């Protein structure tokens, strides 16, 4: 009996010593610094945003056939895997089918809300995760001129890039201080109309201030929602993403005049903006004009409203690995001087061309005055196709 008790005491003592040793080892290990924690939070914030883009819908490409702000402003189908839709379909075949039935009824009743300004939620725009998202790159907003709350505006956002990070961060989240820089101005960002047909995801989009890139939706914001509205449109749209690569700035703009016509019809001033660094976030395989792969991309873009791009970024665990996360490159979005536009309900083609040319000149001026300030060389040029 004494032998058994002694053995148990020895084992207990050994276990206690092992636990103490493990605790000392744990305490002696270096704890993550505040800088490490911030880096992880920034990485996770970008990860959740990219996953929402890839798995739920398309954030960045904001246009229909012909591209955003082009001669056509029409709905276009959502391009990526609508997991929320699959979830509701799955629930139909379970005991939770009333959830799908009730939500479907709600969507039918709420069908036109995206076309009428949506439902903005200030709390989502101030979500702390967007500050970490901003700091990952980082993203910065630069104001050059005031915007009066007594007018409405169409902000042209350039370039498209792969995921429109600059446009999203500045015009949808409040992390870069748009509201403080432009008091009294409510920013909206247009995106593919098909995204608002996706259950649940449509609520997420509307709460952030996104609206469909349709004549009806944009016209509502510019004429029936009071003043102080600024509708940001990624003019180049999906077609422009095909030319996205570091060191080359090519905009699809020469024949994109639909946004100018809408500005004239509603008397909305035109404001150019340029996100320096947008094209540096990913590496893309760019196929030359006239090649069979480029032809397939362009046909797909015309049919589906978005262009299939072959790109890569950094991996989740290492900067040296390849993955789907953007590289941490600084983005500076400069908002330029408004082009004053009169209200003409039925503008002629010559009038549209004149104000389109004024907008292009204002954009080129904005680019030339700021390119060397934000990472570009004096010899870099802006190519407009």
TrEMBL record:
Q: What is its main location?
A: endoplasmic reticulum
Q: Mind telling me which residue stretches traverse the membrane in this protein?
A: 40-62, 82-109
Under the heading CDD domains, the entry gives:
LPLAT_MGAT-like
* Name the record gives this protein: Acyltransferase
Describe its membrane topology: Multi-pass membrane protein
Asked if Transmembrane is a keyword of the record, the answer is: yes
Which keywords, in A-to-Z order, does the entry hold? Acyltransferase, Endoplasmic reticulum, Lipid biosynthesis, Lipid metabolism, Membrane, Transferase, Transmembrane, Transmembrane helix
* Compartments reported by the entry: Endoplasmic reticulum membrane
What GO cellular-component annotations does this UniProt entry give?
A: endoplasmic reticulum membrane
Keyword Transmembrane helix attributed: yes
Task: Give the matching Pfam families.
Answer: DAGAT
Q: Which family does it belong to?
A: Belongs to the diacylglycerol acyltransferase family.
- GO BP term, example: lipid metabolic process
GO molecular-function annotation terms?
O-acyltransferase activity
Write down the superkingdom of origin: Eukaryota
- State the taxonomy lineage: Eukaryota, Metazoa, Chordata, Craniata, Vertebrata
Query: What EC number is given for this enzyme?
Result: 2.3.1.-
């Amino acid at each position: 009996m004494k032998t058994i008790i002694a053995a148990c005491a020895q084992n207990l003592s050994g276990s206690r010593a092992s636990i103490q040793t493990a605790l000392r080892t744990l305490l002696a290990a270096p704890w993550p610094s505040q800088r490490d924690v911030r880096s992880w939070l920034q990485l996770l914030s970008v990860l959740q945003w990219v996953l929402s883009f890839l798995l739920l819908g398309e954030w960045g490409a904001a246009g229909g056939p012909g591209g955003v702000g082009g001669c056509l402003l029409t709905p276009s189908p959502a391009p990526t895997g609508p997991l929320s839709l699959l979830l509701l379909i799955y629930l139909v075949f379970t005991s939770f089918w009333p959830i799908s039935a009730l939500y479907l009824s709600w969507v039918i009743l709420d069908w036109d809300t995206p076309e009428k300004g949506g439902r903005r939620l200030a709390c989502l725009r101030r979500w702390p995760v967007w500050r970490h998202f901003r700091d990952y790159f980082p993203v910065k907003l630069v104001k050059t001129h005031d915007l009066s709350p007594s007018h409405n505006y169409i902000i042209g956002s350039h370039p498209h890039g792969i995921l429109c990070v600059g446009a999203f961060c500045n015009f949808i989240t409040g992390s870069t201080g748009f509201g403080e820089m432009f008091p009294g101005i409510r920013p909206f960002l247009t995106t593919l109309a098909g995204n608002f047909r996706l259950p649940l995801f449509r609520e997420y989009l509307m709460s952030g201030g996104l609206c469909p890139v349709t004549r009806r939706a944009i016209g509502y914001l510019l004429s029936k929602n009071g003043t102080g509205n600024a509708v940001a449109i990624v003019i180049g749209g999906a077609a422009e993403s095909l030319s996205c690569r570091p060191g080359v700035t090519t905009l699809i703009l020469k024949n994109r005049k639909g946004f100018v016509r809408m500005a004239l019809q509603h008397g909305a001033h035109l404001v150019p903006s340029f996100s320096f660094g947008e094209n540096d976030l990913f590496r893309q395989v760019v196929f030359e004009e006239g090649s069979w792969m480029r032809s397939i991309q362009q046909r797909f873009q015309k049919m589906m409203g978005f262009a299939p791009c072959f790109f890569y970024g950094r991996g989740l665990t290492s900067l040296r690995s390849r993955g789907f996360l953007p590289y941490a490159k600084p983005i500076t979005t400069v908002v330029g001087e408004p082009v004053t536009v009169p209200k003409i309900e039925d503008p002629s083609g010559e009038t549209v061309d004149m104000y389109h040319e004024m907008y292009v000149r204002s954009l080129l001026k904005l680019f030339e005055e700021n390119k060397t300030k934000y990472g570009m060389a004096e010899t870099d040029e802006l190519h407009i196709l």
